[in-house]
Amino acid sequence: MSLTSPVIAVVGASGGLGASTLALAVGRRLAATGPPAVVADLDLARGGLEVTAGVEHLPGRRWDDLRQVRGRLPPDALLPVLPGEDGCHVLSARGGISPDLPDVAVRDVLASLASGPARLVLDLPAWSPALPQVLSAGSLVVVLTGLRTRALADADAVVARLLDGGVDGGVHGYPPCDVRLVTRGARTSAEVLDDVVAHLGVAHLHHLPDDPHVPRDAERGLFPGVARDAVRRCADRVVSVVDDVADAS
What we know:
Layout: E1 8-12, H1 19-33, E2 37-41, H2 49-53, H3 75-78, E3 84-85, E4 88-91, H4 103-114, E5 119-123, H5 131-136, E6 140-145, H6 149-163, E7 178-185, H7 190-200, E8 203-209, H8 213-219, H9 230-248
Parallel strand pairs: 1-5, 1-6, 2-4, 2-5, 6-7, 7-8
Antiparallel strand pairs: 3-4
Helix pairs in contact: 1-9
Protein name: Secretion/DNA translocation related CpaE-like protein
InterPro entries: P-loop_NTPase, ParA/MinD_ATPase
């Protein structure tokens, strides 16, 4: 089952770059400027997105409550039962979840959410089984990468997988997704960024500099995208692209 409307997917090319934080900030900023948003955690072997959002104490459904879902659910029934804050809902795991969550349940829940008015943001690992489904919706895919040699090698592999339709073995058949690059790390020169873009072959969206406020706010349990920090500025840049695409369609 395919998604029926475009989504925004945030893919960390390497671990520890803050893809989950950015995905939550994008959802929060989307909700602040338009319809509600849902941020879904697809790193199902670990979970923890609700902890990053600081909403783990709130009641509501988690992925492990939805493992029996088969077929389309009414989005207006699903959205209100997800924990969230100020119009941004979170679909995560409850203290981690077994990776044997049925793929069909994941597909049908995502399709249900994408069929409603809320905008869907995915914290999407590059190895996720849901990747072809996401690409089939013509999604905006934000690849977050570091600038060290190993990080750029990881980004190269991830971008190649995305442009290949998300399927091993070079199987195509999906419309091209809109892949944009967010670089992460210490402030750097335009020349370095130009070299990275030329090598990876995708458009550069934003550079996310190190910001000491971000880990501080995380320890305080603030929902990403609330404070006026570097992550919020990056999220606003992503939202501007989403709005531009919506205006052009």
